[in-house]
Amino acid sequence: MSKIGVFVCHCGENISATVDCARVAETAGNYDGVAFSVDYKYMCSDPGQNLIKNAIKEQGLTGVVVASCSPRMHEPTFRKACAEAGLNPFMCEMANLREHCSWVHEKGEATTEKAIDLVRILVEKVKYNHSLNEIKVPVTKTALVIGGGIAGIQASLDIANTGHKVILIEKDPSIGGHMSQLSETFPTLDCSQCILTPRMVEVAQHPNITLYTYAELESLEGFIGNFKAKIRRKSKSIDEKLCTGCGLCTTKCPVKKIPSEFNEGLGKRTAIYVPFPQAVPNKPVIDRANCTYYIKGKCKVCEIVCPTGAIRFDQEDQIMEVEIGAIVIATGFTVKQPDFFPEYGYGKFPDVITGLQFERLASASGPTLGEIRRPSDGKIPEKIVFLACAGSRDPAKGIPYCSKICCMYIAKHAMLYQHKVHGGKSYVFYMDIRAGGKQYEEFVRRAIEDDGVNYVRGRVSRIYEKNGKLIVAGVDTLLNAMPVEIDADMVVLATAGVANEGAEELAQKLHVSYDPYKFFAEAHPKLKPVETNTAGIFLAGACQAPRDIPESVAMASGAAVKVAALFSKDELTREPIIAVVNRQAPPVYSSCVGCFLCVSACPYQAIEKEEIKNRNGEVIKSIAKVNPGLCQGCGTCVAFCRTKSIDIQGYTNEQMYTEVMALLNEY
Amino acid sequence: MAEFEPKIVAFVCNWCTYAGADLTGTSRIKYASNVRIIRFPCTGRIDYMLLLKAFDEGADGIIVSGCHPNDCHYTSGNFHARRRWIMFRSLCDFTGIDTDRIKFSWVSAAEGAKWADIVNATVASIRELGPYTDYKKIAKYPEKEVTHG
User: Fold this and answer.
1) Which CATH number is A135-234+317-332+505-571 given?
2) Which of A262, A571, A654, B9 is deepest in the core (most CB within 10 A)?
3) ipTM rounded to 2 decimals
């Protein structure tokens, strides 16, 4: 026979103002199996908790129902109190009298009736609760960082410096990401590569970091503390141990006209190439799609000139399996590409370029060695127009959000142009100037006031060519929407920052959610910005939303601390709210008939086939089995099961049907 | 005669709608008191036999609510719930169970006001439909045969 204690909380007046708590406690005290029932002003206070603890000890309670606030608020508090009094914490249930009753209804009979119903439901449920034990799982203290941009670099270094192992994978031949492409950074105008490359070298030399470039995540299984990842190391067609990075092969390669990804197509590279001079690792890869040998079957110039014989044409992709305990996603973002802006003539006019291309033009390591020269004829543009919000904040283009970094980098671009082209004229078309950040607004003012950049508030409707000039037609909304036409030599589009291609696919591999724009979703917009909804997987940088460098770095350090906290323990505990398949004595073994519908229902691949064998080792029955480490406790399998053989602890069929019946018997 | 007060059972998921209803509370938005929430880990957990059980036990209306598509805490539980609802609805139509008495909706943890609206709308529509006494006619149990020894 159950001996249940009911503890009705007044929550000061939060509950008692509209609910007659004494009547609730009195009514509950009359239910079958209720041994003790009381109301008290603050159940979560020390005396309140002691009331519960003493009742458990004195009355020998087998179950507890606390009727107070939402279990999302105080369930841990009351479970802990029960545990301290020697009652299994999972024998405690909470009736939500505050959020679901007293706060949302007026004072009156109906409200008290509802409170009584809510308590009754839980009293009946708790009769069918079982003692459960928290699940303990070991932690593999190695982190996987996906993406070697500034966020991934920072996260890797921070985790590695706490003494834990890190595996950093990067899909490109070198780490560095977008930051390595930038010329200068706002608002200080310090050289991007000068501050980044020492970090890149630190990553390569750190004893706790294993770096795999030209590598991508193939698949992931497992759960927090115990992930198993398969990593595809794409063939670089060289033996990295033998290659010294002398670069002779890249100078001799006959295929020299491949648009360089690093230079955003403004420069050229060879088929065997190092993406940029400061690349880490500074060893080449062969781009098989463009290599003459792979296309025509002959050439092998690189193999002939290589002094160490490091070229391996027959090298294949390697699939590597690693065990890790946590993951930081730092895959970054990309910018919208040509075909997106037909009205701006991107792709049609060579002198309409993206912001990222302008970075390469302004960079001392870029194709023009830092001189601003237009791509079509190499002339220095005398008049340049920058267009903010190219795609961003444009619901018609499907990008209603602000890309956040453009206002700042446009001010920087215009400033760099003014510094480099004396006497040049620069215009910025903008919607609003969003310069929230330390020293940011001052930076924009400097561009306008000290460097004489002309800011025009208005949108550009189209760009067309006339007499060798690019005519930028827009309006100035500060002059009563007066039409403006500027005959420019070059136009730079601040193209919207968007999620990487393949972000969706990666999210599905990792079982993390993403927002409507395919940016990875944080667990909570305010309080859990670096966590994902999947335990043990964290976010850093622009893969979550467009971010600038300081934010990406801060986020990466935040994610690293979360990983370090996870690795500070040898074991993790988690709630035992998981599914189980019933087992019975032979010859039945289980009511499961082995249809495995549950396997197809499970979002976590947590259900496996279990074979029951007789003494001779012959399989006599095949049934489902839940892996308690993988199961997250959604219970989808339970609703699927035809024979009611699988059930979820804490929300069993018995409990849920009891709740429905208990409610309606007296409702 | 006092106005008919419908009995409404709400089957909600823990992560979105339960939290959304909590937010209704913390925002002090008032709504009709004719609803009783039963908490599930996920709408994917909701065996629709429970809905029939609720009608059988005398419920006049039912709300099933969980996370919006793509927002499921468990990735896909709400998709299972939705598919199951489509199937279940045609079964209800076939057997003559009044699907107007079942409200299927998505309420996120941020939609406290939406939860109040859904409850109020459901209560109003069920009030109009009246007590669900017809269910007993559909679910006719065979009379127990009395056997004499």
Assistant:
1) 3.50.50.60
2) B9
3) 0.93
